[in-house]
TrEMBL record:
Residues 1-17 form the signal peptide. Gene3D superfamilies: 2.40.128.20. GO terms for cellular component: cytoplasm. Pfam families: Lipocalin, Lipocalin_2. Keywords: Signal. InterPro entries: Calycin, Lipocln_cytosolic_FA-bd_dom. PANTHER family: APOLIPOPROTEIN D. This is Lipocalin/cytosolic fatty-acid binding domain-containing protein. GO terms for biological process: lipid metabolic process; response to reactive oxygen species. Residues 29-70, 79-143 form the Lipocalin/cytosolic fatty-acid binding domain.
Length: 149
């Protein structure tokens, strides 16, 4: 018991300016399956029943396994930002690829925990993207009809 108190006292200067909490770190809530509701068109996504499964790898990084019917095997690497999420219903994701500092390509997705979400939620997600300067005019609904599960 004395050694535990001693370790806590030693650790206090390290966390004095941090936000700390008792107990272990929480599991990432974004993990699991997300279904693509709408997206900006992308050459590597032309299918239907598009979904992404997020999992933690053994090294602690996040693995993303995307699947769809009629899948293109060419998928470029790009940064991937979760703009907002409530973890249980909707997530808004954005990516941008810079082409020689001359122009860039925007990618944006609205994801849901189910294949179909409330149209008001989709409209709210689009407004968030538009507020960030993303041109939502070309957003296209993903066909989730007739999908398994």
């Amino acid at each position: 018991m004395a050694s535990a108190v001693f370790l806590i006292v030693l650790a206090l200067p390290l966390v004095s300016s941090q936000s700390y909490h008792w107990g272990a770190c929480p599991d990432p809530k974004f993990l699991g399956t997300w279904y693509e509701i709408e997206k900006l068109p992308a050459s590597f996504e032309r299918g239907k029943c598009i979904e992404a499964k997020y999992a933690v790898r053994t090294d602690g990084t996040i693995q993303v396994l995307n699947s769809q019917f009629y899948f293109s095997y060419f998928t470029p690497y790009a940064p991937y930002w979760v703009v907002t999420t409530d973890y249980s219903t909707v997530a808004v994701v954005y990516s941008c690829t810079d082409i020689l500092h001359v122009f860039h390509v925007d990618y944006a997705w609205i994801l849901g925990r189910s294949r179909f979400i409330d149209p008001k939620t989709v409209q709210y997600a689009k407004q968030l993207l538009a507020g960030e300067g993303v041109d939502i005019y070309r957003m296209k609904a993903t066909d989730q009809m007739g999908c398994m599960n």
